[in-house]
């Protein structure tokens, strides 16, 4: 596809698929021609209104600015000791058991615990987040693939989540604490305070984007090293390669495979003409293996110079949580390297791949 059909229409997605690195990057870059407002026209029950990933400039810029301070590399680095403790205790608990499932015992609870603590939600509610986050991923997938009928249990779960955050926000407005929910509750965009709904939507976005994606990255990381034991040995000998190893896994097994955009004016990508109202699906995994950009793209090589992969997007919507995801993954690697000499997956069939049209990851990873 990269070579012969760099832009191709896909009936199922109702969108033009875009594969080449330079094309994908240009779509992200040109946010005026390629809008993120994909969810317009949803029922009030399911509205993603005011979630920044689905907003265009200037509202996007105003709202995003409210949370950026919490996710700068410096702010995130301050969380390092706590993140290390969480990772250490989960991995120790995992290693004391008989049947290890890395996804269930580490890749799922680790990012949920970190983001829930950052937001400031009570620990007793962490379990419910995984459920809510799965439901939201399912809702977005259904909507993006044109399955518009709304399922009552989705609506009910989404309503519960919104109510949950709205009541926490309400409470933090009167009794602020040192957490992200309190800061969002007090934040102002364009001189006005966020409504409870806007602040709650922001929290649920952070919850979902922060979980599912990082879980898949962690599972992909272990799977990839299990398949490349020589690279694991190399990392054991030289831990300075950890940052590069994280970047290489992000490139090699891209957790979010595609993103959509809505065309707002006549344009063209690699010779294919597009009109207002057309949808495009940019394929991040394909772009990350474009031989025009990466040498030997199908080889997993942690000594590869950290290249500009597109795993976190690019431009104004560049992933807000990228510094956090990178830190969590580096810490997970350090903790694993401290404790594990070698590991293997019992059999390739033991892996349960996700059945998702845009997420690449595993449901189960026995070690
Ligand atoms: C946006 C991927 C982790 C929060 C994005 C985008 C991608 C992405 C591709 C761009 C969306 C677009 O252009 O439409 C990932 C991957 C992650 C990860 C692969 C982990 C490996 C996180 C974490 C958080 C987070 C840990 C927060 C806790 C966000 C937010 C946006 C975003 C809020 C929307 C930014 C905006 O629209 O301005 N992410 N993400 N992500 N991500 Fe992440």
Automatic annotation (TrEMBL):
Family as reported in the entry's similarity comment: Belongs to the cytochrome P450 family.
Source organism: Paenibacillus thailandensis
InterPro entries for this protein? Cyt_P450, Cyt_P450_B, Cyt_P450_CS, Cyt_P450_sf
Q: Which Pfam families match?
A: p450
What is the name of this protein? Cytochrome P450
Specify the superkingdom. Bacteria
PANTHER family listed in its UniProt record: CYTOCHROME P450 YJIB-RELATED, P450, PUTATIVE (EUROFUNG)-RELATED
Q: Which UniProt keywords apply?
A: Heme, Iron, Metal-binding, Monooxygenase, Oxidoreductase
């Amino acid at each position: 596809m990269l070579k012969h059909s760099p832009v191709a229409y896909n009936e199922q997605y109702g969108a033009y698929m875009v594969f080449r690195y330079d094309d994908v990057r240009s779509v992200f870059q040109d946010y005026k021609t390629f809008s993120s407002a994909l969810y317009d026209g949803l029922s009030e029950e399911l509205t993603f209104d005011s979630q920044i990933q689905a907003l265009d400039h200037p509202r996007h810029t105003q709202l995003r600015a409210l949370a950026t301070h919490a996710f700068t590399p410096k702010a995130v680095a301050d969380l390092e000791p706590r993140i290390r403790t969480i990772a250490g205790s989960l991995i120790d608990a995992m290693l004391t058991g008989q049947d290890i499932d890395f996804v269930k015992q580490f890749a799922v609870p680790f990012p949920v615990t970190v983001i829930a603590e950052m937001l400031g939600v009570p620990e007793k509610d962490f379990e419910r987040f995984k459920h809510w986050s799965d439901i939201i991923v399912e809702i977005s997938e259904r909507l993006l693939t044109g399955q518009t009928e709304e399922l009552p249990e989705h609506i009910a779960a989404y309503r519960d989540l919104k109510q949950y955050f709205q009541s926490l926000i309400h409470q933090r407005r009167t009794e602020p604490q040192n957490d992200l929910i309190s800061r969002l509750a007090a934040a102002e965009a364009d001189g006005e305070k966020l409504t409870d709904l806007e602040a709650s939507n922001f929290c649920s976005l952070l919850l979902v984007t922060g979980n599912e994606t990082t879980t898949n990255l962690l599972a992909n990381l272990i799977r990839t090293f299990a398949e490349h034991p020589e690279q694991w040995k190399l990392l054991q000998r030289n831990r300075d390669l950890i940052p590069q190893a994280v970047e290489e896994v992000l490139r090699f097994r891209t957790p979010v495979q595609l993103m959509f955009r809505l065309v707002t004016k006549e344009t063209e990508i690699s010779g294919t003409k597009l009109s207002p109202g057309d949808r495009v699906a940019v394929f991040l995994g394909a772009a990350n293996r474009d031989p025009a950009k990466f040498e030997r793209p199908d080889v997993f090589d942690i000594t590869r110079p950290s290249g500009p992969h597109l795993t976190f997007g690019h431009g104004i919507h560049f992933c807000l949580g990228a510094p956090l995801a990178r830190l969590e993954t580096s810490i997970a690697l350090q903790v694993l390297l401290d404790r594990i000499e070698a590991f293997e997956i019992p059999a390739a069939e033991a892996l349960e791949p996700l059945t998702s049209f845009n997420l690449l990851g595993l449901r189960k990873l026995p070690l």
